[in-house]
């Protein structure tokens, strides 16, 4: 059975791919693309790993710790990546990375809100 929401579930990855030709055609800094897309993919992989680990445990404190640590760590990872590319390469590269990340985050967050009701198992009403 195929997932009818597969595009929404992977909208972020679609945007990472679509952004590459946009950056090339517009002449925007490729270091900004690499940093923004790389930070997005890294934090997505970390999120998926942390979610899997949290689901494997029955200890609520451990589950909360895993998810909280993941959120804080991913935020720092992204912020430092954008800061470093901005300082090491150029202001334009840092701005491009930040804008790319925010666009992908916004689309992913919105898609997640739309998908959420379909991911929750429905209990039959009596």
TrEMBL record:
What UniProt keywords apply to this chain's record, in alphabetical order? Answer: Membrane, Transmembrane, Transmembrane helix
Transmembrane region(s): 13-42, 63-89, 95-115
Q: What is this protein called?
A: Uncharacterized protein
């Amino acid at each position: 059975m195929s997932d009818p929401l597969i595009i929404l579930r992977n909208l972020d990855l679609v945007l990472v791919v679509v952004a590459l030709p946009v950056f090339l055609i517009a002449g925007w800094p490729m270091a900004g693309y690499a940093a923004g897309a790389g930070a997005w993919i890294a934090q997505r992989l970390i999120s998926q790993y942390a979610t899997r680990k949290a689901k494997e445990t029955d200890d609520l404190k451990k589950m909360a710790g895993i998810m909280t640590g993941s959120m804080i760590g991913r935020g720092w990872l992204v912020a430092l990546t954008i800061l470093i590319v901005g300082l090491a390469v150029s202001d334009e590269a840092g701005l491009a990375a930040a804008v790319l990340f925010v666009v992908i985050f916004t689309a992913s967050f919105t898609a997640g809100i739309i998908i959420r009701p379909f991911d929750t198992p429905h209990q039959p009403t009596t």
